[in-house]
Amino acid sequence: LLFLTSGSQSAGGDVTIVAAPENTTVVAGESVVMECMAAADPTPFVSWIRQDGKPVSTDVIVLGRTNLLIPSSQPHHSGVYVCRANKPQTRQFVTAAAELRVLATPSISQAPETISRTRASTARFVCKAEGEPAPTVHWLKNGEAILSNGRVKVQSSGSLVINQIGLEDAGYYQCVAENSLGMACATAKLSVIVREGLPSAPKKVSAVSLSSTTVLVSWERPEYNSEQIIGFSLHYQRAVGTDNVEYQFAVNNDTTELQVKDLEPNTNYVFYVVAYSQLGASRTSSSIVVQTLEDVPSAAPQLSLSSMTPGDIRVTWLPPPPELSNGRITKYKIDYCTLKEADQVTSIEVGGNETQITLYSLHPNKIYKVRIAASTSVGYGAPSEWTQHRTPDRDNQTHVPFAPTELKVRAKMESLLITWQPPANHAQISGYKLYYREVGPEESSDESPLDGAEDESWDVGPIKLKKKVKQYELTRLAPGKLYEVKLVAFNKHEDGYAAVWKGKTEKAPATAVDPPVQKGPPLPPVQVYAESNSSTSIWLRWKKPDFTTVKIVNYTVRFSPWGLKNASLVTYYTSSDEDILISGLKPYTRYEFAVQSNGVGIDGPFGSVVERFTLPDRPSTPPSDLRLHPLNPYAVQVHWCPPVEPNGIIVEYLILYNANNTQPDDMWTLLTREGNIFSTEVHGLESDTRYFFKMGAKTVVGSGPYSNVKDVHTLREKLSDVLDIHSVTGIIVGVCLGLLCILFCMCASFRNSKQREALPGLDSQAASNHTYYHRSRQGVAAPSATLDSHELESLMSPLPEDAPVPLGDITELTEVHSLIHTSLPEDIVHGKRK
């Protein structure tokens, strides 16, 4: 890729690129310079862009003023780079482009993973490689090359698929990617799991060919665990060849024979049987090979006609390919007649090993129709299309070249390889002219344009070839189409007689068809597994049943909350894949799932139910039924019920309270209680105060919303609440001490009164009380009492003898005296008087 263009407004080569970039191929890691030098007056401005519109990589360096330097080329540098030279202050420009190709050794971008599979299941290894040139991928097992066959397939993407795996498939698989620079390899291991209790392999497998397309296969039930069998699968493929497709039938557990139809005639097939239980598949039975019966050929040989003399036609052909002969060709039959006498057909039979025959005693310059049919031991197949040929003119045979001999055409899918030999008078020819055309079904029996002058009747031709050329290949043809080829020799005077061939190109290979299966409902999927994805979604995964009776086109998933009886709340989803993410579920809720396989126009039963909880979440609602009850002026009883939507197991309840409900939550007092408690007492409150409460719940995920605020008024404080037992005890003790003090003072007062009676100058009232005072002191004239009286007198200030006693003192003394007599028990008073 290298081109130069100039802008439409450039004038007279004012701007020219004197050194354009060149197409370059380098190996990754090498440096490369993309050179571009331009000339103009003034010096032009040179810039670079990528043709694909991507930005030029940042690690590309501008070398000098116009060149690009890539110090270490990598695959992402590959592309077409465009150098543009602009003349300053004008719109004149010129461009040149070149392609940079960076070669890279292969690298494995996605390596196969080690897997374990049960017997009779499918193993898939994915391997993707990168490199330049693009690497080819092939596989090895334990170091030996793997060839595609019915069970083992190497897909065009590079993936390896192994169907109906057995113990012999266990081992190490290597993905090898190669190109011209090197190779890369990645390895994965396949382990085959065999469960206990599986049925043994089916016994005595036999096969009998009933016709060219039908085989009857029969077998006996396994020797062990036969009662657990739920079905059989019959597998078959061609016995020879590579890249064969393996087909399978699924049959019920009470069936031990099956007719396999739509086979190819005269073809060897290999058959084996597998038994299935709920636990899995048995070992494969012993294989048996059987050949279908022969049939008539599916296609006729393709003819070539030429003439050596005016009175003969040489007929040559190639045997039908093996896939179309349907057996061993035993003979051929050639039919021919003149064009005008179509009802007078002459037939000749030749042996099956012949490939040519000459028809003699024909009329010169006549158009003949010829066709051929091949036969096996069963009979003749359909004949070929009529091919027309004109015999030479007897009068012009000295000057007209004869037709080329031994015209043979090897038909391929998109080409025809033509070979021939020169005619008898080859010294007179100057060369050959080749014509061909596609023949439509409506004109297959019409007269062909046999003369070389009628060039307009042929799609292509004449193609002139030198006289020494003896083969030519026509290409770009359509597969499975009927073509007619004409080859003539010519000299300097005129064209010679034609050699004609008519036949079909090969058909395009049929796309892989699904294995034929018998009618019946498909079995449900196996290995159904539910996995919690979030609090509102669950992944449901399953695998296609190991064998089935119809082609499965999709699956139906049924799910509902566990134990639900209302059918209107059951939900159904359809999935074409083997997994589905079910969303919109409730947190921490138990759901049950079942999956159904669906065929074309037929649905199977739902499989066994699997159950799964969604993950927990924060509670959606606060605790319900919050109730507050004051216990005393300093405590409140709090009752509540769990949230309506807990979304998980409640691990803790949160109680917030405050006397001021306008403060933010972080200013409230927080109490926590375990999730299995639904009442508590809150102490330490103030009396006669309005408190506000609200509650929240908490799961392992976090806290939910708080409830609405509720208030409670604590009780007012009473006197009985103030005077408790300690206070009452203190009062009693204080009163008793006070009474003792009063009694002591009264005793001291009486003693002083007695002494004053003895003193002169006491008034008559004091004297009149002398008798009483004296009487009161009888029996207590102890020394201590006398000492106390002296001490008391020493504390009292002396009064003048004639000082009158204040009336208030007398009255007070009288009151104290009376108080003593009234407050003391009677027995105590009498005791003192004694």
Q: How far is the N terminus from the C terminus?
A: 151 Å
In the CATH hierarchy, the third-tier topology of the largest domain is known as Immunoglobulin-like
Number of extended strands: 56
Query: What is the total domain count?
Result: 7
Give me the CATH superfamily of the largest domain. Immunoglobulins
Helical residues, percent? 10-25%
Q: If helices are DSSP runs of H or I spanning 4 or more residues, what is the number of helices?
A: 8
Strand content: 35-45%
What's the overall geometry?
elongated
Which whole number gives the mean pLDDT? 80
Tell me the Rg in angstroms: 59 Å
Subcellular location: Cell membrane
Protein name: IGDC4 protein
Membrane topology: Single-pass type I membrane protein
Family: Belongs to the immunoglobulin superfamily. DCC family.
Write up what this structure looks like:
This protein is mostly beta strands and 834 residues long. Helices cover 11% and strands 41% of the residues. The protein folds into 7 domains: 2-104, Sandwich (Immunoglobulin-like); 111-193, Immunoglobulin-like, CATH 2.60.40; 203-291, Immunoglobulins (Immunoglobulin-like, Sandwich), CATH 2.60.40.10; 303-504, Immunoglobulins (Immunoglobulin-like, Sandwich), CATH 2.60.40; 526-613, Immunoglobulin-like (Sandwich), CATH 2.60.40; 623-721, Immunoglobulins (Immunoglobulin-like), CATH 2.60.40; 735-778 and 801-833, no CATH class. The strands form 14 sheets. It has a 7-stranded antiparallel sheet, with no helix packed on it. Strands 1, 3, 6, 9, 10 and 13 form a 6-stranded mixed sheet that branches. Helix 3 (725-758) packs across helix 5. The longest helix is centred in the last third of the chain and has 34 residues, at 725-758. It starts with a strand and ends with a helix. 27% of the residues are buried.
